[in-house]
Write a structure and sequence with these properties.
Elements: H1 14-26, E1 27-40, E2 43-54, E3 67-79, E4 82-90, H2 92-97
Antiparallel strand pairs: 1-2, 2-3, 3-4
Length: about 100
């Protein structure tokens, strides 16, 4: 269950898949740096930094060529090697506003 999905959106992986697909269309040179991993029992928490270059249309904004950096903290619950629950906080909307 994606507990970070917007209100009235499906709580399955479809929202995240759509976001990642759109992100890859609008950005290139995408890199994900894992800054920290904490685990306890079946919970894993990540603090990561995503960098990319805005080279295509994204959320109605045409390519700017700007390099962006997004900070993410997420918590996942694992069962049988799969993520069953996901929570995330990030500064993505500030990044989009700065394009």
């Amino acid at each position: 269950m994606n507990d970070t999905a917007p209100p009235n959106a499906p709580k399955d992986a479809s929202v995240m898949i759509g976001f990642v697909t759109g992100f890859h269309k609008g950005f290139s040179n995408i890199a994900v740096r894992i800054d920290e991993v904490l685990a306890e029992g079946n919970k894993v928490s990540l603090r990561k930094t995503i960098t990319a270059t805005h080279t295509g249309e994204f959320m109605g904004k045409t390519a700017t060529g700007k390099k962006v950096e997004m900070n993410v903290i997420e918590i996942d619950i694992l069962k049988d090697g799969k993520i069953t629950d996901h929570w995330s906080r990030n500064d993505f909307m500030q990044v989009v506003q700065g394009l």
